[in-house]
Amino acid sequence: MGEPGKAGYDTTLPAANIYEVPCPILRALEVIGGKWKLPLLWHLADGAVRFNALHREVRGITHMMLSKCLKELEEDGLLRRSECGGKIRHVEYALTGRGRRLLPALRELYRWGEEQLSQDGGGRTAC
């Protein structure tokens, strides 16, 4: 790969198939991509949330898909799962330091998306 250009990062494409070499953008999309991971991360930005609260807040997600996404985000080091004891046991999820480092990028992506919605006259999605 070459030197950083005007964009601030190396924009030289590898000679090999882009999907067969390490690419930071593709890795990031692999970790946070999909329909449900970004909404889950967004809801965890303010602190720890119980499983059932996440299920209520992220409308449309099934219990199975919620469990799957949370497990993948935990495996990728973006959140931690805590079992809380007491009379009634429950599970909470919270962002790790690695997950928190993602929040500024998500905020910028949100701002960019707002600009696109205003330019496109509303777009296809709503938060």
Describe the structure in your own words.
With about 130 residues, the chain is mostly helical. About 45% of the residues lie in helices and about 10% in strands. It has 6 helices and 3 strands, in the order H-H-E-H-H-E-E-H-H. Strands 1-3-2 form a 3-stranded antiparallel β-sheet. Strand 2 (about 80-85) and strand 3 form a beta hairpin. It is globular. The N and C termini lie far apart (about 40 Å). The model has no long low-confidence stretch (mean pLDDT about 90).
Write a compact overview of the structure shown.
Helices cover 46% and strands 11% of the residues. The chain has 127 residues and is mostly helical.
The structural class is mainly alpha
Question: How much of the sequence is in beta strands?
Answer: 5-15%
What's the arrangement of strands in the largest beta sheet?
1-3-2
In this structure, how is the largest beta sheet organized?
3 strands, antiparallel
Order of helices and strands: HHEHHEEHH
What is the overall pLDDT average? 88
Estimated helix fraction: 40-55%
Total helical elements: 6
- Tell me, briefly, the overall form: globular
Straight-line N-to-C gap: 38 Å
CA radius of gyration: 18 Å
Number of strands: 3
Report low-confidence residues grouped into runs of 5 or more: none
